[in-house]
Amino acid sequence: MLLPALPVVLLAAAASTPGPTLAIEDTMHTEVPEVVVRAPRVTLAEILDRVARGEARRDSQLVDQSFIATLRVIAHADERGHTPELLTESVYRVYKKRPNHLRTVELRHYEAHPPKDGKPGDDGMDVEFGPDMSEELVNFAFRPAARRDFRYTIAGRDIVGNHVLYRIAFEPRSLLDPIVPSGQVWVDTNEFVIVRQEVHFDRSPAPLFLKRVDRMVIEREVADGHWLLRRMLVRLTATVPFPKVGRSFDFGIQFDDYAVNRGLPDSLFAAGGKERR
Questions:
Q1: Cβ–Cβ under 8 Å, residues 127 and 133
Q2: What is the DSSP pairing of strand 182-188 with strand 163-172?
Q3: Residue 177 phi/psi, 5° resolution?
Q4: DSSP 8-state symbol, 189
């Protein structure tokens, strides 16, 4: 049998006594023949239909949920001559139940520069949670009713572990409304749900206060058997510096400790609204 010759460099021991010999292969090639795949690819329209069904299915599986949400504001996030500073941090336990039950309990609040009178300050960075569990923040551009308002393109296909991910870019059909963003989503084709979204605005949605929205990223993870929000980060650049915040600042929310479909009693929501411990 003839074997293909491979260039080999033999390194022999310099000593007169016999010793081990090492072989180092400096060139080695392998080629795999191309395979022509004749099966038709899934069309963009079919992908969009599957995403809409996947998101609706994810939403329909949620009857109640609770989680901890941590809100943080980082001042001077991207400013020369300034060190980023944790300006505020608020931690909430949030309870939701269909059809419209909501309870939010503030567990902790921190301010780097609290008012001198000791009362909680008004930093203007509060967030109101809603009872809805469909996470429209993630899928707003991929709902059936939104198809007429956006253009879509397949930006790429990736393999992560045993998952195939589609990257779908979207942009508004009309440029008249500055608050409608463009962006890109990553779709997990195992369940056709959106697992990551990056959003950008061509123009500031609030030009009197914000010069631009530098970046907005939203991510989901599997928690308690369901794809749920994990984190959101927005970096903003102000038109003029805000007191204590500066011109560039980050606003982020992290979601932890999910419990889904545990049969939350209606009595839990008797107080309703937002409360502090």
A1: no
A2: antiparallel
A3: -100, 110
A4: T
Q: How far apart are CA 194 and CA 165, in angstroms?
A: 9
Number of other residues whose CB lies within 10 A of the CB of residue 270? 9
- Tokens representing 195 are 């697992």
Is the distance from CB of 213 to CB of 204 less than 8 angstroms?
Answer: yes
pLDDT tens digit string along 54-74? 999 999 999 999 999 999 999
Residue 140 contacts residue 134 (beta carbons within 8 Å): no
Contact 197, 205 (CB under 8 A): no
Band the pLDDT of 128: cuts 50, 70, 90.
Answer: confident
Which residues of the chain form beta strands (DSSP E)? 8-11, 22-25, 64-75, 85-97, 101-111, 150-160, 163-172, 182-188, 193-200, 210-223, 226-242, 246-260, 274-276
Read off the tokens for 34.
């191309």
Q: What is the reported pTM?
A: 0.80
Helix (H, G, I), strand (E, B) or coil at 109: strand
Q: What is the pLDDT of residues 166-203, one digit of tens each?
A: 999 999 998 788 789 999 999 999 999 999 999 999 88
